[in-house]
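User: Let's play a game. I give you a shape written as tokens, and you guess the letters that built it. Ready? Here's round one.
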């Protein structure tokens, strides 16, 4: 070893802040669930609701199957949330497969059991691949449904928005025109379909503002732990799946825990970018998977609170 002293260059110290170091404290969340098809699925759903309830979401919504196929299960799930929790329950309603009188009766039933928030959607055809056709005595579209709900009772009504344009819309202008009809009918907020590019959301939000519409737009966040399933969802709603997302999950088919870790990180990063753009409310499509949604919320600084 040489006796000569080894020269060392001083490097200025710089604190590196971890990606999710900030506990923001000003984020609101909401969660979407789907009604169970079996007793086992009902138990899983209720465990998910109990897990996420301490995060004090603004509301939790329960979906409605194509053609009203889950009407009774949706109603039963919503009623149980109202009766057994302190959560604000939002029931989905669609135009498909029912007359105006039938839909109005369902809405009145919801109001009577204490539901004050409805997610009003046009809905999907009963069979995949079918073209949408309104019921001959029903509401023709979501805008008509919103107006009908407001006539039944002063519901808080959320509607859908499509940052990447609804598959049935000819172009962005036509999509915005349809969105405007829902806003003009009395919608209180919009929840977007899922997306994976924050710029996609910001462009849509800016287009809505530029057109003179003043409505809260909540980004819908879908944590991806199953790429094939997500691809099927994307085909139905017109969402794009970037190549990098496919690459991230490649080779993880037999490693569910690794998929969950990556899914949580990707979703939280997207939410962080949206937060930087001014978003403060995030709506999570949970697919009844509470732990994944809980982990994402925790990364964002949303913490459980005492009841």
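Assistant: Ready! My guess for every position:
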């Amino acid at each position: 070893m040489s006796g000569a002293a080894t020269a060392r260059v001083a490097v200025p110290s710089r604190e590196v802040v971890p990606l999710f170091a900030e506990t923001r404290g000003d984020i609101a969340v909401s969660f979407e669930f789907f009604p169970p098809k079996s007793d086992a699925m009902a138990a899983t759903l209720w465990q998910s609701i109990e897990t996420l309830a301490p995060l004090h979401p603004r509301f939790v919504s329960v979906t409605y199957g194509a053609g009203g196929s889950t009407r009774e299960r949706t109603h039963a799930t919503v009623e149980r949330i109202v009766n057994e929790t302190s959560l604000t329950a939002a029931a989905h309603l669609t135009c498909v497969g029912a007359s105006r009188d039938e839909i109005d009766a369902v809405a009145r039933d919801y109001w009577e059991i204490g539901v004050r928030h409805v997610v009003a959607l046009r809905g999907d055809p009963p069979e995949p691949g079918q073209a949408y056709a309104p019921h001959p005595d029903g509401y023709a579209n979501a805008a008509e449904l919103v107006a009908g709900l407001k006539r039944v009772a002063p519901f808080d009504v959320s509607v859908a928005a499509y940052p990447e344009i609804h598959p049935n819309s000819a172009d962005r202008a036509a999509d915005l025109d349809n969105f405007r009809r829902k806003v003009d009918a009395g919608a209180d907020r919009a929840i977007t379909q899922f997306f994976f590019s924050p710029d996609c959301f910001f462009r849509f939000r800016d287009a809505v503002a530029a057109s003179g519409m003043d409505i809260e737009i909540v980004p819908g966040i879908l944590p991806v732990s199953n790429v094939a399933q997500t691809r099927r969802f994307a085909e139905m709603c017109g969402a794009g799946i970037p190549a990098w997302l496919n690459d991230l999950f490649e080779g993880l088919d037999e490693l569910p825990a690794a998929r969950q870790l990556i899914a949580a990180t990707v979703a939280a990063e997207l939410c962080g970018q949206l937060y930087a753009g001014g978003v403060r409310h995030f709506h999570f499509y949970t697919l009844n998977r509470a732990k994944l949604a809980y982990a994402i919320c925790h990364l964002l600084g949303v913490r459980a609170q005492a009841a």
